[in-house]
Design brief:
Helix 1 runs antiparallel to helix 3. The protein contains six helices and no strands. By secondary structure, the chain is mainly α. It has two domains: 124 residues, no CATH class; 57 residues, no CATH class. The protein is elongated, with a radius of gyration of 23 Å. Helix content is 70%, strand content 0%.
């Protein structure tokens, strides 16, 4: 049973949309871990300076103890989370998806789509578990970029959006609305 050209175009679009969404997802994850690493390093530097001040001043021993405790906690959290390494991992995933999108710039053929699907599955097998709320946020960004109306996008709550980088909060509440309009194209 042969697939029609329209069917191939639809499947091509769906895969390309998914690849682009994955690029956005990993860009957001990388940025999150980069910010976490920078904030941790900044706090360690500031609190370390406060600890040194506390040690050098006779009447500021409590400052030294509290600052030292905070440096230990912040550094431990950053070490356990491994924010710098995770940021690099997401950069690598993003690059793999960009390479995949570049490969999709060629002719739209069944063979090329099959290769893209195989490569995509290989990348997904290496990825850490997906944060579904963050993935839905990236999906909405892609739909807005393609001109879909706001009412056609899945609704994501304020709290969900704020916690999306940390964990999935009520991800089952995110539902796709029935499309009311087609993407708006600009000439």
């Amino acid at each position: 049973m042969g697939a029609t050209t329209a069917d191939l175009a639809d499947r091509w679009y769906a895969v390309q949309f998914s690849v682009r969404r994955s690029i956005r997802y990993h860009q957001r994850r990388r940025a999150f871990y980069d910010r976490l690493d920078k904030i941790s390093n900044m706090l360690s530097l500031i609190l370390g300076s406060a600890a040194i001040y506390g040690v050098l001043q006779e009447n500021a021993k409590n400052v030294a103890l509290i600052a030292s405790a905070f440096v230990t906690v912040v550094s431990s959290i950053n070490l356990v989370v491994g924010s710098a390494q995770r940021g690099r991992d997401h950069t690598d995933f993003m690059r793999k998806y960009v390479d995949l999108e570049k490969f999709m710039l060629g002719d739209e053929t069944e063979e090329r789509l099959l290769k893209v699907s195989e490569q995509r599955l290989s990348i997904e097998a290496e990825e850490p578990p997906v944060l579904h709320v963050l993935n839905a946020i990236c999906h909405n960004e892609m739909m807005r970029a393609e001109g879909f109306a706001k009412e056609d996008l899945p609704k994501i709550g304020f709290v969900q959006a704020q916690l999306a980088q940390l964990f999935d909060f009520c991800e089952s509440s995110i539902q796709n609305p029935k499309p009311k309009s087609q993407p708006q194209t600009t000439p």
